[in-house]
Write a structure and sequence with these properties.
alpha/beta
Amino acid sequence: MTIEQTDKIDFIGTLPNDLGVELTISDHLEWDGENKKLVLIQNKLNAYLEFIESGQIYIEYPDAKGKDLFISLVSKHSSNQEGKNFLSQVAKVTSEYGVVFKYRDTNEN
C-alpha cells in the first residue's frame, strides 16, 4: 500500500509493550512545490480518521479496543518547510479525535 491508495490502511499493529495501536501511512513520494503531496497526505489522513471514527478499526482489528491510537506517517524523503508546517498542524487535528500523530522520514538517524 502507498499514500496514493487512500482507500487502504497501509499498516496496522500493536506497539511494543502493548502501549497502543499504530496505523502507519507509507509515503514514498518526494516533496513537491505544487502541494500535490499535501493533498494526498490530507486525503489519506481523512480516510484513517474515518476508519477510526466509524468504528471500522474495531471490526477489522479488534485488538484496538481500549487502546491508545496512533497514526504514523513514515516518509522516504525529508519534508520541505511547507510540509513541516502542515505536519505540525496535523498533530493538532488528530488530537481532537483522541489520536496521536507521529512523523518520521527514513533519512533520520
